[in-house]
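User: Predict the full complex structure for these chains.
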Amino acid sequence: QVQLQQWGAGLLKPSETLSLTCAVSGGSFSGQSWNWIRQPPGKGLEWIGEINHGGSTKYNPSLKSRVTISEDTSKDEFSLKLSSVTAADTAVYYCARDASSYMDVWGKGTTVTVSS
Amino acid sequence: QSVLTQPPSVSAASGQMVTISCSGSSSNIENNHVSWYQHLPGTAPKVLIYDNNKRPSGIPDRFSGSRSGTSATLGITGLQTGDEADYYCGTWDSSLSAYVFGTGTKVTVL
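Assistant: Here is the predicted structure of the two-chain assembly.
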């Protein structure tokens, strides 16, 4: 059974870079698509982007200029970097597996707060 | 602002049925598979329905999904207090080249 364990800094200052990592265990990493999703306080879910087999990436157009998703296949991990954060980037961030049109496995979430 | 519109809230008595609508367009719902997620506070979202009307193993048949044109619907029968949560539809949007979630619906069991 595939499990996702995520971690990263939970408190950032404006203009810093958010960095989160998600480790995959219990299943195959290669040949899958891996996503990042977030939920700001009091708001709905927002897709950030994905990295798929071969390392190709797709990003939410609204975040594209600041987002980088990468993978480390030697560690079965994928990561999110979001640059120049502001208070609007405060959210719970989730990593998730894309089972071809839907997210079937999710990490537990990481709360990221941006505050000066 | 999401391209998929859901009612902010729905409610019904325990044991009754609720339906949640998800309205989109030809660039998303009409031509791409729809999934539905249940999100309880403090937990990760869980997929209830995928490919418009399929249930993952372990999801009870009280949950059902359908799609017609540019809209999709989630139905929950035999409502239980444990069903109180936020529910989101989701699908790929071919125009945006992005996965999109609905605005979310809070289900309350009266």
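Chain B has a mean pLDDT of 97.
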